[in-house]
Amino acid sequence: MRRDRGRGPSGADDTGQEPAPGAVPAVDTRLLVREEGVKGYVDEFRRKLRSGELGSLPVVLAVIIIWTVFGSLNSTFLSAQNLSDLSQQIVGTGMIAVGIVFVLLLGEIDLSVGSVSGLCAAIFAVLNVLNGMNEWLALLVAIAGGAAVGLIQGFFFAKVGVPAFVVTLAGNLAWNGLMLQVLGTSGTVNIPSESIVSKLYSTIYHSPAAAYVTAAVGVGLFLTASLLDAGRRRKARVPFRPIAEIVLRTVVIAALAFATAYILNQYQGLPLALLIFLIVLVLLDFVLRRTTYGRRIFAVGGNIEGARRAGISVPFIRMSVFSIAGTMAAVGGIFLAGQIQSASQTSGGGNLLMNVIAAAVIGGTSLFGGRGTVWSALLGALVIGSIQSGMNIMGVSNAVQFMITGSVLLAAVVVDSLSRRTQKAAGRA
């Protein structure tokens, strides 16, 4: 027998009152889906497609198509070496894209993250290489500098009322100028290969056990978190995932994790940069989905006036989110500097800004705010990185690469817009 949330066995609600004669009790659709088994999940999937709730489906299909096309054109693309290199190359862009995800969840944009990443890389290089500061201290100062820059921009946006677009556009110019000032006349500071920044990017754990243990720990954490969440929701008498669904999800995650570990071990092993990226994603995903602060970010992005009336400090959320974006820009800039082992006048420039914004949007984060996850950064960076890697292998010119990347970004925005319009029509947005 089905029971509604908040009703006793007799059908009385939490106030002890019986429902009116002939009234139809409200039933949570998620309970119906899980009670109907496979058919329920199929029907729910169709309903989500019709109502525009696409989730990560488009980007997953995009990765499959991209890998299939480039793999058929050149077998080198799907080699263990190329995929391992790809997993390292997307880390810098992906880290910065994580910060962009937080900003997009508010329905805003940050155009300064490229310059901030270059500035923080320059700060580290000058303090450590030219001035002899302890490398760990220089690293902390550089990351703190990114957080401070984001906080300053967040202040002008949240407190002064300057639009985020204008604040960060001005910041894009100003922080780039400050980077040139910090680098001085030399213009380029080479980072030694033994530096902590270089090692963060280049270190690879060659033991096969490292990749497999990491995969096992990841799967174990996912299973444990899922079971704890189901138990908590069961005690609260709200819809929860049944054990069979949790097991199925765990099996899928395990297959992906161990397949990745196997591929990495076919070349050199587990890159430290990828491991750090995954840890950052897990931690920030927990912050967004499991903490009050994360729920407040979604609330502000979904309905700012409603958030104010609910007692949420909108200025604090805005300032903190831009500070997170600045921090992640600094971290990404450090990894990019470690990749090329230098900080120069071109650091943070080129198409970096467009790539990180494209990664966040292509990964599934909505430009309209209130919808997205930090895993969007990983998926989007994987799409961008795969396109660039495949076209480099094929010898395609940069001009064509830019056009194709721009087309993919436009397609992602079109899908987001159509999805939002469909959800409005279905009464879900």
Automatic annotation (TrEMBL):
Residues 1-23 are annotated as: Disordered. Its main location: membrane. The chain crosses the membrane at residues 54-74, 86-106, 113-130, 136-157, 164-184, 204-225, 246-264, 270-288, 316-340, 352-370, 377-394, 400-418. Keywords: Cell inner membrane, Cell membrane, Membrane, Sugar transport, Transmembrane, Transmembrane helix, Transport. It is a multi-pass membrane protein. CDD domains: TM_PBP1_transp_AraH_like. InterPro entries: ABC_transp_permease. The keyword Transport applies. Pfam families: BPD_transp_2. It is found in: Cell membrane. This is Xylose transport system permease protein XylH. It comes from Streptomyces flavochromogenes. The lineage of its organism: Bacteria, Bacillati, Actinomycetota, Actinomycetes, Kitasatosporales.
